[in-house]
Every structure is written in C-alpha cells, then in structure tokens.
Amino acid sequence: IKEELLPQLKGINGTLEGAETDSTDAAKNDTPHSLANVVELLHQVQNILLELEPKMEKFQKRLGEKDPVSGNPRYGENTQQRVTYVLQIYNSVRQYVPDDRTQVGKGTDINSMDVAPDNPLCLLEKQYNKEQEEEKMQIELEEKQSLQEQIKKAEDERRRQLEEEQKQKQQKEEEERVQQEERERLHIQAEQVRQARAMEQQQEQEWFESIQKGPEGVKHYLEKLKQSTCNQPALVHAKAVESLYRIFQQINAHPEETKFRRIRRDHEQFVEDVGRHGGGVEVLIAAGFVLGAIDDVPCYLSKEPDIEKDMDGWSKWFDVNKATFEILEEAVQNLK
Fold first, then answer.
1. Three-class SS of residue 36?
2. What is the tens place of the pLDDT at every residue in 160-176?
3. DSSP readout, 77-130?
C-alpha cells in the first residue's frame, strides 16, 4: 500500500490539481494532455489493486477468524487496527476503480462498464475519449477544409485560364473582324476609285472624241476661247492666245524635243493662262494632242509618229502642227 498504491494516488491527485493550470502551457509546448496522464495512472492503480486483491481477501478473512483454542481474535488489537485501516483504504480506492473483469483502455466504451456514473475513471475516460474524438474531428475538418481550398484554388485557376483563353479568342476574333472589315473597306474604296477612274476616262474619251480635229477645229476653238473670255479684261484673252502660240512655236522649232510636246494638266501656269478658259485645251486636242500620263501624272501629249514606219502619219502630224502654228501666229498678229 505504502510503496505502490499511495504514491500512485498522490500522483493522480497532483496531476488533477495541475491539469487546469497547466493546460495552456501544455498546449503551447505541444506536450501530452494531463488527462491522458491521469488515465494512465488510473490504469496503473487498477493493476496494483488487482495484485493486492488476493492479499486483501486474505486480510479480510483472517480479520474475522478466532483462535480455536483461546477463542480470541487471530489478530491482536494493534494488528486489527492496521489491517482495518489498510482494508478501508483498499475499499475506498476500489469503489472508484473497475475490477479486473473490466479492462479500460483507449477506445473503451465507458458506458458499457459496470461502474458508477460518477466514477472518476469513468468521467476521465469519457472526457479523454471526447477530446480524442474532437481532435480527430478537428483534424478531419482541417483536412477537408484544406482539400476544399485546394479544389477551389484549382477551380479558380482553371476558370482564370478559361477566361483568359476566351478573352484571347475574342481578341483574335475581333482583330480578324477588324482586318476583314479593313480589307473590305479598302476593296470597296479601290473599286470605287477604279469605277470613278473608269467613268472619268470614259467621259474624257467621249469629250476627246467630241472635239473637232484638224486646222478647222483649231480655228473653231480659238473662237470659243475668245467668247469664253469676252467678259474679262482683254489681257486675259491675249495671254491665252500667246501661251498657245509659244507652245506650237517651240514644237515647230524643235520637233525632235519631246519636252516641248508634254504639258501637265495641273501645271499652275498653264491652267491659269489656258486651261481654265473654255476652248483653251480644245485647241491642243484639235491640233493633235492626246490625253495621257507620264509617271502616273496626267498630261496632254503630242506624239510624233515614227517616220520610218508611218510616213503618212508623220506627215499629217507635222502638217497639223505647222498649220496650228500659222493660225496662232495670225491670231497673235490680230491681237495687235
């Protein structure tokens, strides 16, 4: 009793007294819960009680026996007191600890044990099992939450990737749509320009064909030029006739020089002196000039036929230029 049972009971008492005050520090230091220590000590007490049980039964039996010869109790007065004291301690402890037929361990169903509901071991076991179950549930909850977070993170990442892919797809489709619209716009614009140019060329061709050619045509359009400038100062008409005269003067003086037979349609000086007046450009066309372009620049051109290949054409071209020059020369004389 002194060497085994009482020290264990003192250890249990000390553990219980420090359980509440030490619980916080134990949690912080990650040490085993004091409740588990108490349960372990109670199991040790149970083992000690089981070992003492035969001796206690023997003490109990002999405590009631008497000497067959003298009829006195087997134990003397002092021994009786000591044995009675030991039995009281044993029985007091025993009523709170299950007997040898009930083995208590981790996971034991306390409710199935044949012990009093307020038995300390029962209460401690229940509390221990409860805490173990709560700890297990907490671990399972944390694992579940961690798994849910991982699933949610994976879903969010997948959703982000899908959104990014969808965004890139929409951007690509939008770029392709814009490019297609731009191609269609440019195609339409080019077609409009082509049609406008074709119509312009058709109108120019019709206008060109409507002009009377040859010396008679030159005279006719000189008269038209005079009429279109009649309401303007006389200097305007004179300047137009003199400009035409200088053109054909250069051509007749230098028939081999092509630069004298090229006039840009938008040449500012030509437009100011001749082109803006009715009949002015027509004089050129009547004298053999045609509509053309040099380096995509619209021009009025007087093309000299190849004398070796087309002698008749060249003679006709030369005669018209000479006749136009003479007609313009006479017109300049008339201005004086």
1. helix
2. 999 999 999 999 999 99
3. HHHHHHHHHHHHHHHHHHTTS--TT----TT--GGGSSS-TT-HHHHHHHHHHH
